[in-house]
Amino acid sequence: EVQLVESGGGLVQAGGSLRLSCAASGFTFDNYAITWFRQAPGKEREGVACIANGASGGRTVYAGSAKGRFTISSDTAKNTVYLQMNVLKAEDTAVYHCARVERFYCSGFDLKTIVYDYWGQGTQVTVTS
């Protein structure tokens, strides 16, 4: 069965760093893009970053809030996607989920037009100010 399991969240002071992991199983890793989303209380779900290992175009995509601070990467041997988050801010506080994109490339984070067919359980990131 398809599984996505997030880990690495926690409590961190503003300016600090965390690395989130998304361990994937039950499917051919390189055939699908993986996207990180986050959702804070009272806010809409927000795309953060996407990676597609098998794509020549749209291999990585970042939201404006993540550019320059966050880096998405993958380890195909481990079927794992990472989100390195640096210079964390209080507004980064949210539950972070990884989701499988129902295609092999990244093209944004539009939940209305892009199908995300599997989601992980989420990991909480709390940044103190």
- Rg is 14 Å
Distance between the termini: 40 Å
Individual helix count: 0
Q: What number is the mean pLDDT?
A: 95
Indicate the low-confidence ranges by residue numbers.
none
General form: globular
Structural class: mainly beta
Strand content: over 45%
Biggest β-sheet: count, sense, barrel?
Answer: 7 strands, mixed
Binned, the helix content reads under 10%
The number of distinct β-strands equals: 11
Name the helix and strand elements from N-terminus to C-terminus, one letter apiece: EEEEEEEEEEE
Structural features, described:
- With 129 residues, the protein is mostly beta strands.
- It has no helices and 11 strands.
- The chain has strands at residues 3-7, 10-13, 18-25, 34-39, 46-51, 60-62, 70-75, 80-85, 94-101, 116-119, 123-128.
- The strands form 2 sheets. Strands 2, 4, 5, 6, 9, 10 and 11 form a 7-stranded mixed β-sheet that branches. A 4-stranded antiparallel β-sheet has the order 1-3-8-7, with no helix packed on it.
- Strand 7 (70-75) and strand 8 form a beta hairpin.
- It is globular, with a radius of gyration of 14 Å.
- It starts with a strand and ends with a strand.
- The mean pLDDT is 95.
Summarize this, please?
The protein is an all-beta fold. Helices cover 0% and strands 48% of the residues. The strands form two sheets. Strands 2, 4, 5, 6, 9, 10 and 11 form a seven-stranded mixed beta sheet that branches. Strands 1-3-8-7 form a four-stranded antiparallel beta sheet, with no helix packed on it.
